[in-house]
Predict the structure.
Amino acid sequence: MFRPTDPQVCLVAGIALGALALVLVYLQFRKGWQQTVGLPLGYICVFIIAHIGSMIYLLPWYDPSESAYLKQAKVSLESVSLGTWLAGWSAFSFSLGTMLIANSPQTYARRTGSAQGSSGGTQESKVVNNASSESLQDHLAEAATTYLIPNKLIVVGLLFLVLGPILGRIPSFSPIASSAKFFVVSGFCLGYFLAVHYKSATFQLYYYTAILVLPVATVILFGFLAAGANMLAICMAFYVNRPASLKGHSSIGNWLMRAPIYFVFGWLGLSAFVTYMNGRESIRRVVWEDSTLLQKANIAWEEMSKFEFFDIYNSEHLQFLDGRLNQSELIGKAIQFHEADFIEFEMGKTLVYATVAWIPRILWPDKPVSGGSEFVSLHTGRKFSTTTTIASGQVFELYVNFGMLGPIVGLFLLGYILRYIDIRASQQLLSLRVGSFVKWHIVGLAFIQPSAQIFFIVTSVAGAVILVSVTSSWLARRTML
């Protein structure tokens, strides 16, 4: 595969490929919820967040050696550009994988003869245009009952998130507890869809503003911003698929009109990130101790209220991005390490571990685990603190297994699989089969973890399936309890 020799050209090429992947995924689905529930777009958004730090190397005034941490880690333009180049190709390959399958649930249904998809097509105008023959009273009664399901999802998700640290100590319960965040995301997405369907401006505003609490919640509960930020990004990927008009479809023109809004939203997100990084140690000192929820909320409010807008000329802000949101650097280090013949490729070893990841540890206490800081150190030569947890991601893992073609082929297949799940979820949503939508949607959300290794994605999918199965009968009830 051709690779530019100039690091700057290599960096620009990788960033351009990543941007092209985002545009391809977004513009594939211009007809909104008739085509997608936002799973591929959610993946690309979270993927970009994990690699956005590489973009600062385009700035001529940025010098990573000004940071003692980055200097000690030997971060360089060469390693970042290599990682960005491969990450860009991987993202582009993912977008091609999503294009391989039919572009709409209705087209897919016709090709496969799916009865579910066909019925979904007959209901499409009802959902998108709200052209229902029911009386207003019956419509509102149906809405009151249906809103229970997204609210139940959010309650279950938040409950498991709060109890997660306790449940995580029980063998085999950790993947189930960690999948709770998918319930929260699915609840918000479903609730917003129903609010649009029933033309409830109040509920639309509620579901739009409530998701802003997600990053705050994960900071208060766990001391981490990333999990909540990713949940927020996935929700937004669903929300923006709403048709521009209930009587028409969104277009490229509509997208261009929205672009400044997305830019401002992204800038505010980066501002929240640098504010969090400034107060992170103080927050974690309280959150990780045996503090009350009120004490945790107080310290989070105290630090986050010192809000600082992101400044592209502020070297400290740029170093935060480089040190925490730049997985490309680790990928580049791995490429340099392997090309220097310091270590051989894994040749699928970690994928073999992933095939048994679904087996509960309560049945197999000595089940092998793949990943972690030691795994990253082994393939980069970089040493990490024993207390540091490093998320290497799928591009890194597939590269150290199979070389350059590993992540290209792997993310192409992932794009195809996620798009298939996306279509099935969209079929159920268009047909107002809420329970079936939740099952497909939550399983799809478990795949949207670009920073996780495949072993942990398998455990997340297994945990999500178990939690959905256990709660499905309760979710279907027309009462809260």
Q: What stands out?
A: The chain has a mean pLDDT of 82. The longest helix spans residues 252-287. DSSP finds 24 helices and no strands in the chain.
